[in-house]
Amino acid sequence: MISFSSNYYESSSSFHGSIPGIMGTRFDVLIAKTTKEKALLVWNKIVAELIRLHKMMNRFDSKSELSRINKGAKKDFVTVSDEMWSVLNDCKHYHSISEGLFDITVNNLSKIAFEIESKSVAFPNKDFYFDLGGYAKGYAIEKIKKMLLEAEIEHAFLNFGDSSIAAIGHHPFGDCWSVSIDNPFKKGEMLKEIKLKNQDLSSSGNVPTHPQHIIDPFTKQFNSDKKVVCVVAKNSIDAEVLTTTLMIALSDQENRIKSNFKIDKSIVFNL
Question: How far is Cα 243 from Cα 181, in angstroms, rounded to an integer?
């Protein structure tokens, strides 16, 4: 069962909500300069949406839509929901503009059969499955940003496990939101402080406790580079997809691939 908690702080007119186990990580939101009633109203919508997306995109949940697709598409065409169809086609687009490095099959997305009229998909063999881990958090952030905009929230900070972040407006005691990028291999060392205002930040890298989690779809090998990639963009999906891509891109591919994305900046820290 997914648990969540929240607090409103009268002294600063701010709200903090947290879901410790959602979409494979922890989600936190800080809403500044707001009333308790407005914050709770939008928080309840955020919780419901994240739980919905978690159940839809979690391949480890046997009842999720993604699990149903992964199981059925090994045998025949499987019809998917309108939303999932849109997601899968978006992932096809990112696969194309990343020169195949962003691949939700970690195999070869171009081999998946897409039947447009029936909105159905089929895998070429039993070795294929979809994994939306490098896409889902960015997708969720875009949904939440829209909710906050509709609720007329002007200042908020969204954080998915420190790796996918959205900064709306600015900190109540500053003109931006500041994020520290730490060196995962040297405790206490800050690599850079990034200032955000109406921007999203995605960070990707290997850490000592989780050194191999990004697979090169061409070599089928885990990336083991000691580096951290950060991307700042207006769209969280763009940022999340590109950080994963740049972790495994060759040096001669980097600028070519980045030119296909709308980003504000990218930084690679070789550690």
Answer: 14
